[in-house]
Specification:
Layout: E1 30-31, E2 34-35, E3 37-43, E4 50-52, E5 56-57, E6 63-69, E7 84-88, E8 94-99, E9 106-108, E10 112-113, E11 119-125, E12 133-137, E13 143-148, E14 153-155, E15 159-160, E16 166-172, E17 180-184, E18 190-195, E19 202-204, E20 208-209, E21 215-221, E22 229-233, E23 239-244, E24 251-253, E25 257-258, E26 264-270, E27 278-282, E28 288-293, E29 306-307, E30 313-317, E31 327-331, E32 337-342, E33 349-356, E34 362-368, E35 376-381
């Protein structure tokens, strides 16, 4: 398993939001007759976090997210901090909700929020054994460690079912040192649901689920060709490899999304016709279609997708584009590819996962760049068709 820092995204909460912000720079462009405007909502400064890696939004228009680095506690052996959890309100007021200190975890991944206002997440390292933790942040600001890993390492972002069970993956460790899928029950009992063995994949990413309780995901390595797989884990514990990548159709696949018909969509970080990654669709009959092959000007190294009610896909690339600092793009159902914004470093660099509100505005974070080169939170107004359904 190739060790790497696992920077993750989160699927959107589609809600209305009003944001007051100062326009830093504008991208020229039109989307179905609407002007597209790029706005920097916040630039991180180290003490309030470094390298934000995801964003979510509540019904009142507040943003929440994590920074994988920075914060007030400094790592002893390495430069930088252990990371933090933050909130940005609609008026632009920024608050650090928690700074990790290593003992309670480090390098936090993306959050999820339940109906009671509790946040759940994982830390990719730290904790008693240094292999990461699962945590809960309650509304009063107290952080509770729910699990300290010894049964896997590099845990990824979580999903939750209606019974309060948390599901996730570890990118390494487990019986065969190729990663695991786990379940954490509300009573704190962790069950390893699957140990990867390289043949069925190695290095699993964030999970998604369908309404029948099946879990889906990707591994960035392993499989028949060693280039990663798409898998399904049924409620009875049977794991099925749905597709093995072969470099020609992409390699190093990232997290998936699912549409109403059960089709899976995702990206590959590398491979494809130009070696710069792909966007793919895996139909319910198991047929994989490459929807787009990236080139360096369109972006390189692709991350999570989101999909709107018209079937348009949106995503980010952390590299490539006009200035080499990454892009935000959309792909229409007819295959038309549009670059919505190319980052230039000053307005951010290395963008990550997007979310969308019902007015068709996109929001996201950049891992670097901005006023202090510690990352940003940004908005792209008018990027998508408003969802009034």
């Amino acid at each position: 398993m190739v060790a790497k820092k696992r920077e993750r995204g989160l699927l959107l909460l589609s809600v209305a939001i009003a944001i007051s912000a100062v326009v830093l720079t504008s991208s020229s462009g039109e989307a179905a007759g609407r002007k597209i405007r790029f706005i920097t909502l916040h630039s991180f400064n180290g003490k309030d976090g470094v390298s934000p890696n995801c964003l979510l939004m509540d019904g009142k228009g507040n943003f929440y997210g994590t920074c994988g680095d920075g914060g007030i506690y400094i790592r002893i052996k390495y430069s930088g901090g252990y990371g933090s959890i933050f909130k940005l309100d609609p008026n632009g007021n920024f608050v650090t909700l928690h700074s990790f200190d290593g003992s309670d975890g480090g390098s936090p991944n993306c959050l999820l929020m339940n109906g009671k206002g509790n946040f759940y997440g994982t830390c990719g390292d730290g904790g008693e054994y240094g292999f990461g933790t699962v945590f809960k942040l309650v509304p009063n600001g107290n952080l509770i460690t729910l699990h300290i890993f010894r049964d896997g390492r590099w845990p990824d972002s979580l999903i939750m079912n209606s019974y309060g069970n948390l599901y996730g993956t570890t990118g390494g460790g487990g019986k065969h040192f190729a990663g695991t899928i786990f379940k954490l029950a509300p009573d704190g009992v962790l069950t390893t649901l699957h140990n990867f063995n390289s043949k069925d994949g190695e290095g699993p990413w964030t999970l998604i689920s369908d309404d029948r309780g099946n879990l889906y995901g990707t591994t960035n390595q392993g499989g028949i060709h060693g280039d990663g797989v798409i898998f399904k884990l049924a409620p009875d514990g049977v794991l099925t490899t749905l597709y093995s990548f072969n470099k020609i159709d992409g390699n190093w696949p990232e997290a998936l999304i699912i549409d109403k018909q059960g089709n899976l969509y995702g990206t590959t970080y590398m491979g494809g016709a130009h070696g710069d990654g792909t966007i793919f669709k895996l139909a319910t009959d198991g047929a994989l279609t490459t929807l787009h092959n990236f080139n360096v000007m369109e972006g390189q190294g692709h991350h999570y997708l989101i999909i709107d009610n018209q079937g348009i896909l949106y995503g980010t690339t952390p590299k490539g584009g006009a200035s080499g600092h990454g892009t935000v793009f959309k792909l229409a159902p007819d295959g038309t590819f549009t670059t919505l914004h190319s980052f230039n470093g000053k307005d951010g660099a290395r963008p990550y996962a997007l979310i969308m509100d019902r007015h068709g505005n996109l929001y996201g974070v950049t891992y670097r760049g901005g006023a202090n080169n510690d990352g940003t939170i940004f908005e792209i107004k008018g990027a998508a068709t408003p969802n009034n359904g």
